[in-house]
């Protein structure tokens, strides 16, 4: 314990002190995971108990095996409703031209593509309004205007970060199919140790990813670090259902139907068993809200969708 | 709004009537512009087996080493991102940089450290 404390004190110099002061955690938790001083802890992998090191590997293998069928499975399991949830997330975000987005656990790029489409549509509407206000344009001017409107993204940019290469590969192929060429970047990275500099992004989103992270508090702290002051944290995640009848139907559906669907469509029962179990393990709305506040976010709020099956948590770095 | 040049171009394409020299040429070049981004507009990068397609320098502004949070240097010959201080290099595969610490290799040792395939 003495060794731990002195190392923790050593970390007080430099950037460690700010983070340490912000989070009101006991001193021995300041030691970063690369050191060997951290005691081995257990965590949950669905309803199983595994060591923390194992969880990372197991989660990686789950997503490696489902990567190709991920989108198909999402549509079948949620009966297409996941699209509405993601659209609602974008509406809540309401980005404007020039926004820099970081989509963590973004895998196949659903949020990123929606973001790009939203910005493009917004820009096109604005340009059309501008054009309507101009009178007496020659054909040359109009043609030039259309030429410029091709790259209607401006300064907006989205970085998709995921720990799993396979998911990103699927996402990159989708981007090519959908025709998104600019404003998009793909990075393999760990949500608990983001490879990005401080104060870089306007919005940080994590959709259906944070329950798979081994140390959620670290991911939240990293989110706080990479956001610009005034930046927004948005998390779309499965949560606790508030209606008892729907809760029972939901449990029935989750445990009886989804793993079977997983076996039939993706040929993988266990991964989808893990999925529904991990949903049950994730803290409910209020508890997660407190975790976000602990990481330093302010004005934290949540909105439950579909009677609490999913919730969007939002916080600001002020 | 584009009916004028569009009509000329389509009729030229269908070969119905020859384009008048100056007007036609101007309309044609404009149409080519409008047709889409020119394929040769990407800067000619190093001609490797898998060129760093999509890995643009814009990422370098935001990317740092996940361990030390210091900026990285892009090494074009080996297609890696190098952290001089710690002496490690992160590979770029298919234009996607792999910033997981376990995937990085040490560059100070003479023999390369085997990349762990964990992540």
TrEMBL record, chain A:
Top EC class for this record: transferase
Binding-site residues, S-adenosyl-L-methionine: 108, 162, 190-191
Chemical reaction(s) catalysed: 2-methoxy-6-(all-trans-decaprenyl)benzene-1,4-diol + S-adenosyl-L-methionine = 5-methoxy-2-methyl-3-(all-trans-decaprenyl)benzene-1,4-diol + S-adenosyl-L-homocysteine + H(+)
One annotated GO molecular function: 2-methoxy-6-polyprenyl-1,4-benzoquinol methyltransferase activity
Compartment annotation: Mitochondrion inner membrane
Highest rank taxon of the organism: Eukaryota
Functional description taken from the UniProt entry: Methyltransferase required for the conversion of 2-decaprenyl-6-methoxy-1,4-benzoquinol (DDMQH2) to 2-decaprenyl-3-methyl-6-methoxy-1,4-benzoquinol (DMQH2).
Organism: Sarcophilus harrisii
UniProt-listed Pfam families: Ubie_methyltran
One annotated GO biological process: methylation
Protein name in UniProt: 2-methoxy-6-polyprenyl-1,4-benzoquinol methylase, mitochondrial
Family indicated by similarity: Belongs to the class I-like SAM-binding methyltransferase superfamily. MenG/UbiE family.
Taxonomic path: Eukaryota, Metazoa, Chordata, Craniata, Vertebrata
Membrane topology category: Peripheral membrane protein
UniProt keywords, alphabetically: Membrane, Methyltransferase, Mitochondrion, Mitochondrion inner membrane, S-adenosyl-L-methionine, Transferase, Ubiquinone biosynthesis
CDD domains on file: AdoMet_MTases
Assembly: Component of a multi-subunit COQ enzyme complex, composed of at least COQ3, COQ4, COQ5, COQ6, COQ7 and COQ9. Interacts with PYURF; the interaction is direct, stabilizes COQ5 protein and associates PYURF with COQ enzyme complex.
Pathway noted in the entry: Cofactor biosynthesis; ubiquinone biosynthesis
Main location, first listed in the record: mitochondrion
TrEMBL record, chain B:
Record SUPFAM superfamilies: Trm112p-like (SSF158997)
Gene3D superfamilies: 2.20.25.10
GO biological process, one term: protein stabilization
Coiled coil ranges: none
Keyword vocabulary terms for this entry: Mitochondrion, Transit peptide
GO cellular component: endoplasmic reticulum membrane; mitochondrion
Subcellular location, record wording: Mitochondrion
Source superkingdom: Eukaryota
Family (UniProt): Belongs to the PREY family.
Protein name: Protein preY, mitochondrial
Organism listed in the record: Sarcophilus harrisii
Source taxonomy: Eukaryota, Metazoa, Chordata, Craniata, Vertebrata
């Amino acid at each position: 314990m003495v060794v731990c404390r002195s190392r923790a004190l050593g970390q007080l110099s430099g950037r460690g002190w700010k983070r340490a002061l912000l989070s009101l955690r006991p001193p021995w938790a300041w030691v970063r995971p690369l050191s060997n001083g951290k005691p081995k802890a257990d965590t949950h992998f669905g309803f199983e108990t595994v060591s923390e090191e194992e969880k990372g590997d197991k989660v990686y293998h789950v997503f490696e095996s489902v990567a190709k069928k991920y989108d198909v499975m999402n549509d079948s399991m949620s009966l297409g409703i996941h699209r509405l949830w993601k659209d609602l997330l974008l509406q809540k975000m309401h980005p404007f031209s020039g926004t820099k987005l970081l989509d963590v656990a973004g895998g196949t790029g659903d949020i990123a593509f929606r973001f790009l489409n939203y910005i493009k549509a917004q820009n096109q509407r604005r340009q059309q309004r501008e054009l309507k206000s101009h009178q007496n344009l020659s054909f040359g001017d109009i043609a030039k205007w259309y030429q410029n409107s091709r790259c209607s993204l401006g300064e907006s940019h989205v970085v998709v970060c995921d720990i799993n290469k396979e998911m990103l590969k699927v996402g990159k192929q989708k981007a090519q199919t959908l025709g998104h060429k600019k404003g998009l970047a793909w990075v393999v990275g760990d949500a608990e140790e983001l490879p990005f500099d401080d104060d870089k992004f306007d919005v940080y989103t994590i959709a259906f990813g944070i329950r798979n992270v081994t140390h959620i508090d670290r991911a939240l702290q990293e989110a706080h670090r990479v956001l610009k002051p005034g930046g927004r944290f948005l998390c779309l995640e499965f949560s606790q259902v508030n209606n008892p009848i729907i809760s029972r139907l939901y449990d029935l559906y989750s445990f009886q139907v989804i793993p079977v669907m997983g076996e039939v469509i993706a040929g993988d029962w266990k991964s989808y068993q893990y999925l529904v179990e991990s949903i049950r393990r994730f803290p409910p709305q209020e508890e997660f809200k407190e975790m976000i506040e602990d990481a330093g976010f302010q004005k934290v709020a949540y909105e439950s969708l579909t009677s609490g099956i999913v919730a969007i948590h939002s916080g600001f770095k002020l | 709004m584009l009916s004028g040049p569009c009509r000329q171009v389509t009729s030229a394409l269908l070969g119905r009537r020859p384009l008048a020299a100056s007007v036609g040429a101007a309309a044609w070049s404009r149409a080519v512009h409008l047709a889409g981004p020119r394929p040769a507009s990407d800067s000619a990068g190093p001609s490797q087996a898998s060129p760093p397609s999509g890995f643009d320098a814009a990422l370098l502004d935001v990317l740092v080493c996940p361990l030390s949070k210091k900026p990285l240097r892009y090494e074009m010959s080996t297609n890696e991102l190098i952290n001089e201080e710690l002496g490690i290099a992160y590979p770029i595969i298919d234009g996607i940089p792999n910033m997981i610490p376990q995937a990085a290799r040490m560059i100070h040792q003479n023999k390369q450290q085997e990349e762990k395939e964990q992540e």
